[in-house]
Amino acid sequence: MPATAAVVPNRNGASWLPGLLASVAAQTTPFAEVIVVDDASDDESLAWLAAHASHVRVVALPAQRRFAAAVNAGLAVVSPAVDAVALLNTDVELDPGWHAAMRAALDADPARGAVAGKLVTLADPGVVDDAGDILRRDGVCEQRGRGHRDDGRFDTPGPVFGPCAAAALYRRSALDAAGGLDERYGAYLEDVDLALRLGLAGWTGWYEPGAVARHAGGGSQAWLGAPVGALIARNTLVLVARFFPWRWAVPVLYRQCSWLVAAARRGPRPLAAHLRGVAAGLAAAPAAWRERRGLRARAVADVASVVADRPWRGPAAGGHPRGAA
């Protein structure tokens, strides 16, 4: 029988774990196993798990390794019988039918390597948080629907670049072949890198709106160690250096310039954080660049077929409505 493991990376998520694990236990289709990987938390996470979640397998890392490494530590101990893995952030609560709908979507096509559900905000479930990710050729990963009212526009299932790893389902064989998450990202864009590698390997992504999860969006803050803007600036440059062809240099440069101007307008501190991120990205880019030949040699699909030719400027490029998180 098909079996799914739920892997939950945790760093100081004691306040989130009760809601998440209660929603996991309430699934109409149970998970075969639930694994919480604690990334050297210094809150009450481990004590709470010991007292209230004896059914959960806990992997306690002795030193902090950050989000991507915590996920990989969980993947390493998933039982051999498991053929699909759900990645769940601590700040997520699943509707009871989430696993059943996600699993049905994955099983419907053996070419599907990952499934995205509909993420709505925990504070207001009438607002979309993410309806599947879309990677543009300027290096931006667009969270489709973010900040928009859940008014039916995002109720149609269909192909999507990849899922947000806050609540995503992956085929085990696809994850194993990809080697899990790239730990150099730490946090932010590690799921985008994975989706891109899966696409290059010939796997497809799918969006299933019937699988709804509520996302608070603050549970990953304990992993950051730097402003979000700095991490996104750094990791975008790593992603671009690793995968993007030279012919996409114009949209990438356009986006980098627009981000620089936007950071400057926000003030000296956001500008300094952004510049630190850019400097870190430029320092990491040469190593990422050297991996391109090997990645291309293993790919069965061209990057242009995985990263669709979408507008990268103007209203048609997407973006979040004013005031959205």
TrEMBL record:
Pathway: Cell wall biogenesis; cell wall polysaccharide biosynthesis
InterPro entries referenced in this protein's UniProt entry, alphabetically: Glyco_trans_2-like, Nucleotide-diphossugar_trans
Superkingdom per UniProt: Bacteria
Keywords: Glycosyltransferase, Transferase
Pfam families: Glycos_transf_2
Family: Belongs to the glycosyltransferase 2 family.
Protein name: Glycosyltransferase family 2 protein
Organism whose genome encodes this protein: Paraconexibacter antarcticus
